[in-house]
Every structure is written in structure tokens, then in C-alpha cells.
Amino acid sequence: MNFDGILFFPLTPFDSGGGVSETVLAEHVASGVEHGAGGVFAACGTGEVHALSASEHAAVVRRSVEVTAGRVPAVAGAGGSVGTAVEQARAARELGADAVLLLPPYLVGAPQRGLVEYVRTVTSAVDIPVIVYQRGSMAFTPESAAELAGIPTVVGIKDGLGDLGRMHQIVLAVRKVRGEDFTFFNGLPTAELTVAAYRGVGVPLYSSAAFAFVPEVANAFYEAFHAGDPLADRLLSEFFEPLVRLRDRVPGYAVSLVKAGARLRGVDVGGVRAPFVDPTDEEVAALGGLIETGLSLVKEG
Q1: Distances (CA, A) of 163 to 148, 183, 247
Q2: How far apart are CA 150 and CA 116, in angstroms?
Q3: 158 in Cβ contact with 133 (< 8 Å)
Q4: 63, 118, 202, 289: least buried by Cβ within 10 Å?
């Protein structure tokens, strides 16, 4: 899997009746591709995969694959119970997705060999590449990560733990097994704050929640960071860090604020589904101020 640029995790828009709005989804995904996304990850965490029925998951994946049309890799989320993960992965393959992002099993703790078997069970059911999402209860030791790297169709690990020491060990262990033929991703919420640290341990790729509602700001940071432009530091201190403080007020705001931001930018994505909650009017106003600040900084830069 070759990714080049910011990884885009689109929202799942809901209409006034509570159903998935495929029209808005198609426009949202198309906008992300036009803004230079390096890959589209549909029906994943930001896309509220936990709240989608099987038919809704399939609809989101199908429309996203249609819109990307081979221009960038289209990856579909799968996870939960092992049976659900297998069903979603098979649906993704049948709908033309290029790969699967395998999320953790549902609300259970397990030993390392059980976690490896969970991944092995899903990969044995489909013949497309799988990226393993390390977060929550699915945390691998370097030894287990190296075992995952021995599964031919496992092509990457996305890290949502933020343990840089562990991640560095994982990178080193996996490289011994697969060399450079393996991809690592920084999957922390608002990953811009940790881009430099992850890059230092061999993880240059990252996903950007901001890209889903202010792609101009996300792209400006990406370009400034790689060019050593001081604009990157200004965006961190005046946009991304305040955004993180707002996000951390309430569990689930990593998605809820992104949806609110998209609505402020004129994208009719609707609200979030339970158990997430939408931000208050005061918080939406604060988010609007941050968006104005970010766009102004980009214009000045």
C-alpha cells in the first residue's frame, strides 16, 4: 500500500431522518480527494463505524470506493466481534476496497496470542491487505507485532496508543521481519501535535481529523512542517493545541467536534449517534473561532 500525504478519515453524514446521507458522503469524500488526501479510510472511527448497521457500513464503503475511483487507496474499517470483523472485511473486499483497517475486538481484554489470533482470523477470511489499528485493548508487544508482520497480508500498523517507546521497539522488531515493506501510521487524535515525535521513531505518516473540516489548515501545516516553515509552529500553538483542549472536554468529542466543524463549513453531515453527544452552542462558537484563526493564519502564511 502506497500512501502519500495526509490520511483522510471521512465522517459518516446522517440526514434529518437519521439515515446515512450517501449524497453528502460522496461530496465529502470527493472534496477530501480534491484537497490531496493520501488515502481515504471510510467507515472507521471518525466515520462512527461503531454506530453503523451492516447495510450502512456497506453503503458507506461502496460510495467511498466509487468516489475515489482508484485515485487514492480506499480503506474500509472493520472490527468489533471477530464475526462482525470478518463480515465487514469480506464486504469491503467485495465492494472493491483496497484494504481493511482492522479495529480492536469489542470490549474484551486478551493475551497477546489471542490478539494475534484475532488478526489472523480476519486476514485468513479475506485476500486484501489489512492494516492493524493498535489502540485500547489491542496493544501489541514488539514480539507480537513481529509475528503480525509475518502474516503476508498485514501491511501496516496504525498506532493510537501514543507510547513512543513501545512504538519505536515495534518499528525495529517489524523491520527485522519485513524490512521497508511495511507501513506505520500515527493514529492519535489531532496527530499534528505528535507528528515530530512519531517521525523520530520511524513513523512519518499520520491521519488528520482537521482535514475533515479544514483541509486548508491541515494541508498548510503538512507543507510547513516538511519545509521547516515557522507557520507550522504558529498553527500548532494557535489552532491545533486549543483544538485539543476543546476536544478533551468530553469523551467522544474527537468525532463530535469534527462533525460540528464540518457543519460550520457548510457540509450537512448532521449530528453524531449515541453514545456520542454533540457539542454545546458555546463549544461550537469556540470551534468557529478556532476555524477562523486557522484559516487566517493560512492566508497570512
Answers
A1: 19, 18, 20
A2: 11
A3: yes
A4: 289
Q: Work out the average pLDDT over 100-112.
A: 92
Q: C-alpha distances in angstroms, 80 versus 4, 83, 173?
A: 29, 8, 27
One DSSP character per residue, 112-158 reads HHHHHHHHHHHHHH--S-EEEEEBTTB---HHHHHHHHTSTTEEEEE
Banded pLDDT at 21 (limits 50, 70, 90): very high
Q: How far apart are CA 213 and CA 82, in angstroms?
A: 32
Active-site hit among 118, 133, 198, 222: 133
**225 to 111, 176, 208, 217, 235: CA distances (angstroms):** 39, 29, 14, 12, 10
Short-list 46, 88, 50, 95, CA closest to 68: 95
Q: Is 133 a catalytic residue?
A: yes
Catalytic position from the list 158, 198, 206, 253? 158
